[in-house]
Amino acid sequence: MSEEQKSPIARFVEWIDSRFGFSDTILRPGPKYTFTPTYWLGGLAFLVFMLQGVTGAIILLFYIPSTDAAYELTSKMISSVPFGALLQTVHLYGGYAMIILALIHFLRCYFEGVYKKPRELMWMVGMLMGLCTLFMGFTGYILPWSVISGCAAHISLGILDYLPPQIGGPLKTFIVGIGTDEEILRRFCAYHVVILPAAVFLLFLIKLHMFEVHGPAEPVTPKHHLPDDAFERRPWFPDVLVYLLMQGFVFIAVLLLVSALFPLVLPPKFSMEAAASVHPEPEWYFMWMYTLLRINIFSGTYGTLAVICTVGLIGLIIFFLPFVDRSEARHPLERPTATTLGLIGIAEFIVLIVWGYLTPGENLPTEQAVLVLGLPALIIALICKYYFNSILVERGIRTPKKFAFEFLSAVARRRYLSVVAFSLLVSMTSCTAAGAVSDAACGNMLSAAMGTVFTGLLFFLAFALMYLTDRTANVPMKRKFGPLEMGGE
């Protein structure tokens, strides 16, 4: 197209590009298949991070990290500073949005196998960015020094006391120094304002470099189902940049609307008297952990330590997932184990959050916890088992021979292990049955009903294990014995 035929907007864009040199940066053209919202969740999260930097810098002009002034200054900004309440609310909801976007981005990368070769290190850097994002939310939650903030700080730091003294003591000193309220607030302000944002920005630059080297992951949809021009590359400026900014402006508009409709309500100031009259709860993104710690079986030092170790182990597995899952398959339907475990993880995360809000400050019975957490996992496992073993077979898609939830068959093929598992299931069935009878005698009919349902599930598992053990005993051996081994001549 000649210069005369170009529109004024096109000529203006070219003029801007020639002066700023956008096209000559390390940023590469993007294929058209990336022009979907799901491909830019990480970029959108970073835009919200930049918005958080702007709103946080303005809030910092009216804030002093001191137990004597933090709450008063925050309250004064909300009530007296023009647009102060909107600014505080946008900053709060922006933090929520950043965590939600990072979480959805994590789930998309997990289910589509984006972490596979050659993007293993990108996944690990992304996990570190997500961890920093969570701690940015937590440290910012403490800064107003309301009764909820102060209680959350003391309770979260108290969890470190359950660690071995050789680990918990130095770690607590490193995080909060001498541990006074003034020191906690001052250090958390430094973490929230300087250290964690700097870490997120540095990790973003590292991930951006690897993204430009490897490019975006190809879609898991078969190529013959994609448009013919799906792999056509569009220039970074202005096409990719304009698309990202369009998404960002729409998201910020929605964020401003929600902030105006549901403004921040500041709880009372922290004091020991106020703390004694409330049930402190963490924010929603840590509620699942709080709910786990309230289950009776996890009470006390060893129970809390068990939760910390289990969560830490799961976190390490997720962090090193590219080296755990070495298969080349990426489509969720070709990875039944990963897909099923991912769906169960989402269900348990939601159930723990909802259950935590429905039972504020209550100790949760162990048998009730097993039912509440075990039933969704069992339902999802059975649905996935049926789907992968029936529907996909009908479509001619081969499922892996070792399915994740064929563990009963695997246990049944090992006689000693099957005896131990069967004995354990029978013992648990007897205990839950006795608990249900005891609850019924005490008039707690809801707990008795839930115990009865759980007893039936355990009985079903024990019966299934016994049936599979008996069936495997009658399966002919695949090994061909020689004449001497068979007793022949």
Structure description:
- 22% of the residues are buried.
- The longest helix has 34 residues.
- The protein folds into three domains: 262 residues, Cytochrome Bc1 Complex, Chain C, CATH 1.20.810; 104 residues, Orthogonal Bundle (Helix Hairpins), CATH 1.10.287; 68 residues.
- Helix content is 68%, strand content 1%.
- The C terminus is likely disordered.
- The chain has a two-stranded antiparallel ribbon with strand order 1-2.
- With 489 residues, it is an all-alpha fold.
- The chain is built from 18 helices and two strands.
Give the overall average pLDDT: 83
Count structural domains.
3
Low-confidence stretches: 398-405, 475-489
The quaternary organization reads as single chain
Summarize the structure.
68% of the residues lie in helices and 1% in strands. Strands 1-2 form a two-stranded antiparallel sheet. The protein folds into 3 domains: 16-277, Cytochrome Bc1 Complex, Chain C (Up-down Bundle); 281-384, Helix Hairpins (Orthogonal Bundle), CATH 1.10.287; 406-473.
Which key features would you list for this structure?
mainly alpha; Cytochrome Bc1 Complex, Chain C; 3 domains; 489 residues
